[in-house]
Specification:
Glutathione S-transferase Yfyf (Class Pi), Chain A, domain 2, alpha+beta, Glutaredoxin, 55% helix, binds glutathione, four-stranded mixed beta sheet
């Protein structure tokens, strides 16, 4: 059985924003049996010897499938998809397309959005205005290209919902409360389509229960 290492407790600003959501969403989509090992970040659970052995960067998420350990949210989501034979096409080219868009999510879009988050947190009073505007411009570039990709498409990689949609909408989640998506109606509709999935709704509910918060507070 798969064990998902996710958060049970984390500093308040992080609640609802963590990447174990992506892993649990994939598990909920596929219906594979799993259990959650809840870690207390505030108590230093991620820095203990046991967790160091399974998580290369002492981060969440990690899964342990009967001794086979996978870290990195994109790799976890792809592993779950491959294991279940769901969320990914059977053919080699279709699978490569899904991998391509998982990489696009974590390798192209996410670094810029993370940079934006860091600037908001650590330079809220904009002592580096040029950096803020360049990062915003770059985010707008990736989002503009995603908007183009979503022209006449329901899902990002294939005609069906795949692992790549979990990753892309997981990455877009970090800007859901900002104005960055505003100029992009297809991205907004896409993100809403992803979030309307029953498996995502279950994931949010389970996560909220685990962290002792209301779903309404982490939507
Ligand atoms: N590239 C990793 C990043 C994972 C990550 O950023 N995890 C955060 C939670 S969202 C974490 O564990 N933070 C705790 C820490 O770094 O101490 C992935 O996609 O899985």
């Amino acid at each position: 059985m798969i064990t998902l290492y996710g958060f049970g407790r984390i500093f308040p600003g992080g609640v609802g924003e963590t990447k174990d959501l992506r892993a649990q969403w994939a598990l909920e989509e596929t219906g594979l049996p799993y259990r959650v090992h809840a870690l207390d970040h505030t108590a230093g659970d991620l820095d203990g010897d046991a967790y160091r052995r399974i998580s290369p960067f002492r981060q969440v998420p990690v899964i342990d499938d009967d001794g086979f350990v996978v870290a990195e949210s994109a790799a976890v989501v792809l592993y779950v998809a491959e294991k279940a034979g769901k969320l990914i096409p059977n053919d080699f080219r279709g699978r490569t397309r899904v991998v391509q868009w998982c990489f696009a999510a974590v390798g192209t879009v996410e670094p810029t959005l993370t940079c934006r988050d860091l600037l908001e947190i650590f330079d809220g009073d904009k002592t580096a205005p040029k950096l803020h505007s360049e990062v915003r411009k770059l985010a707008g570039r990736w989002l503009g290209d995603l908007e183009r990709r979503l022209e006449a498409r329901e899902w990002i990689a294939c005609s069906d919902f795949t692992a790549a949609d979990i990753m892309m909408s997981g990455v877009l989640r970090s800007i859901r409360k900002t104005d960055l998506m505003e100029p992009f109606p297809r991205i907004r509709a896409y993100h809403e389509r992803c979030q309307a999935r029953p498996a995502w709704q279950r994931t949010l509910g389970l996560y909220a229960e685990r962290l002792g918060v209301r779903v309404a507070d982490i939507r």
